[in-house]
Amino acid sequence: MPDPVIPPARWSRRQEAGAGSPHISRREFVRRLGLGAAAIAIPGCSEVQSPLGPGTSPPEELVLPAGKDPEAFIRHSPLEFETRREAFGTSGIVPYERLFVRSNLPTPDASVVEDRDGWQLAVDGVRNPRTLTLRELKTLGVETVAAVLQCSGNGRIFFPHGAGGSQWGVGAAGCVVWSGVPVRSVAEALGGVDPGARFTTGTGGEAIPAGLDRDDAVVERSIPLEKGMTDALLAWEMNGEPLPLVHGGPLRLVVPGYFGINQVKYLARLAFTRRESAAAIMRTGYRLRAVGEEGAPGQPTMWEMSVKSWINHPSGADATVQRAGPVVVHGVAFGGARAVRRVEVSVNRGRSWDEARLVGPDLGPYAWRPFVAAMTLPAGRHLLVSRATDVAGNTQPRDRVENERGYGNTSWRDHAVMLTLS
Known about the structure:
Number of helices: 6
Radius of gyration: 21 Å
Strand order of the largest sheet: 7-6-15-10-11
Number of strands: 23
Helix content: under 10%
Order of helices and strands: HEEEEEEEHEEHEHEHEEEEHEEEEEEEE
Strand content: 25-35%
Distance between the termini: 43 Å
Shape: globular
């Protein structure tokens, strides 16, 4: 599978930094770069949005990393590509060709994957700190987990206040299979975690450009130590292939059940720390805060995902060309940090619900489950919605939690699909 190239810039996003920030943000820096390299251009791509959310103007062209399916994506920026609803399929696993792309900094040069086994990871906060190559990491064990990778801002487009950032619909997510060594195995091999450590902190290996403060630019996130030592992986493989460059290859931190921002790409340092990282992306970024508030360390951070579902079919053109009669509805559901127990579908704006059937193999608590519901519908317009319930009894809510950055949207009402039958 070819590794993607860095695409040229046609930037249209809002600046990540708040008003009055003393430094330029990572995203503003990327905007100013004028990223350049070979890529493919596909004209005239657009997205059919939920009838309950605001619309968006589509980009004039789609510029894709190498090996991606041009029919599968909506382009938000040179570093961000959203999977269309109709491109997810029903298998439960999203292949590289259709998996969304989200980056905080420009993709490193392809030379970093020329010698994958030579990639180096510094490990600190253990009894015997040292730097390990990927070749050495592979001798410490291997596990495989199917897990949903989802951007914190997935569903941002439905927030009425116009939350800053890429206007994701449902497609900043995908379920993939990761393989790598457990974080706990690495810690054990190096003598165990230092007493007093409370966090597992991962640092990305992207170069920090001259003129930018390290803490303002670096991708560095901390998660609770217990989570890191339970089921987090240092992954070098995705869907049975070497981890592609655009998805963090050659080495990435994978934290099943957590939002994608915690799953640090190009992992260069793993540390067991007493305090959360001081990097802006941890200290003030990705904080759940009221509309109009600035980010601050005391606010909830975007760690654990919660239960969510949406319908993928019918959608797009398929939602307007069908005739009255039998309709097969299918979509995906996941519980975030817990398995899904049940999915229900409504065709009347949630006034009544029918249970859908979970299909395909159960790939574990962190994977999503495809669901299907067969029904017969008369001619006219039908608002289709789904809602999921996890094994702990948590049910997907009707309404979103309003917040400044448009994070964590699990509203079933926002994710509706309008179906018109003739």
